[in-house]
């Protein structure tokens, strides 16, 4: 579960900060000694207000909504800049409009706290540091809210910011970004990001490139070749894209070329293929089955 993983990572960071390593070898030996061991939790009295606030948020994921909100109120009293608290409040809302308000607050805090000198020193590695992850998650959640509200350009701006902060893109936002750029007709930007991630071995980039080429060139030898390559990469995607049934249930994991991967791609690509004139007919013609 997300809260358990985050708490575990937080406890590990706290544990490491209490050590006084003299070298990388000492750090490596210490990490080896933890293999198979339970990471200890720290008593409340050993934590500062910020850390106590985070623990209250982690605990909230296992509570009823009423008790969880009470926990979050306590957390924000201890630390008004607790981004995790605003992330949690966003996840509790049922509409993009209301959820977005909380994610925006978390983002505003993140831009302030991780701006200036911190940004200069850490830009490009924002997923690599535990403290910046809640901010990055708020950005991702907020981009989804913006897209749901039909604010596609604003959504794209957020996704581009995320890529700038973390080009390794551990959160996988490039997949949606490339699709949304096709939707907006932003050819130059599409080609820029497609080039950045041209070594991605999943089905997403090959299907995106095929769709982009069809939209910009029409049915040509080039677009047909790219589509056939995509269909070979994952045989399940075409059926999902041609279906009028929205995909609402996704597996926790997927493998390259499997049906779970197809579900994941189609969950956000289905409607974009559908609204691209002639794309579904083209897909069906070249081997796709509805």
In short:
The protein has 290 residues and is mostly helical. Helices cover 68% and strands 0% of the residues. It has a domain at 188-290.
Kindly describe this structure:
There is one protein chain. With 290 residues, this protein is mainly alpha-helical. The protein has a domain at 188-290. Helices cover 68% and strands 0% of the residues. It contains 16 helices and no strands. Helix 10 (174-184) packs antiparallel against helix 11. The longest helix has 18 residues, at 96-113. It is elongated. The two termini are 35 Å apart.
How are the elements arranged and paired?
Layout lengths: L1 H16 L6 H10 L15 H12 L4 H14 L4 H10 L3 H18 L2 H7 L10 H16 L3 H14 L8 H11 L2 H10 L6 H15 L3 H13 L3 H6 L16 H17 L3 H7 L5
Helix pairs in contact: 1-3, 3-4, 4-5, 5-6, 5-8, 6-8, 8-9, 9-10, 10-11, 10-12, 10-15, 12-13
């Amino acid at each position: 579960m997300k809260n358990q993983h985050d708490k575990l990572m937080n406890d590990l960071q706290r544990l490491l900060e209490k050590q006084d390593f003299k070298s990388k070898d000492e750090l490596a030996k210490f990490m080896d000694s933890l293999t198979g061991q339970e990471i200890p939790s720290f008593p409340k009295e050993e934590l500062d207000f910020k850390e106590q606030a985070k623990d209250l948020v982690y605990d909230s994921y296992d509570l009823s909504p009423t008790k969880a909100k009470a926990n979050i109120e306590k957390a924000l009293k201890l630390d008004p800049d607790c981004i995790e608290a605003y992330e949690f409040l966003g996840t509790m809302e049922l509409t993009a409009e209301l959820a977005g308000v909380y994610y925006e607050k978390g983002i505003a805090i993140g831009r302030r706290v991780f701006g200036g000198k911190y940004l200069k020193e850490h830009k490009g590695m924002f997923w690599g540091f535990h403290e910046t992850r809640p901010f990055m998650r708020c950005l991702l959640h907020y981009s989804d809210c913006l897209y749901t509200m039909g604010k596609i350009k604003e959504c794209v701006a957020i996704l581009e910011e995320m890529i700038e902060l973390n080009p390794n893109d551990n959160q996988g936002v490039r997949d949606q970004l490339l699709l949304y750029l096709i939707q907006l007709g932003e050819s130059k930007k599409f080609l820029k990001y497609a080039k950045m991630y041209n070594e991605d071995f999943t089905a997403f980039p090959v299907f995106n490139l095929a769709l982009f080429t069809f939209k910009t060139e029409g049915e040509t030898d080039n677009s047909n070749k790219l589509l056939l390559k995509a269909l070979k990469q994952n045989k399940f995607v075409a059926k999902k894209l041609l279906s009028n049934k929205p995909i609402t249930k996704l597996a926790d994991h997927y493998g390259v070329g499997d049906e779970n991967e197809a579900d994941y791609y189609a969950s956000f690509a289905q409607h974009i293929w559908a609204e691209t004139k002639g794309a579904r007919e083209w897909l069906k013609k070249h081997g796709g089955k509805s």
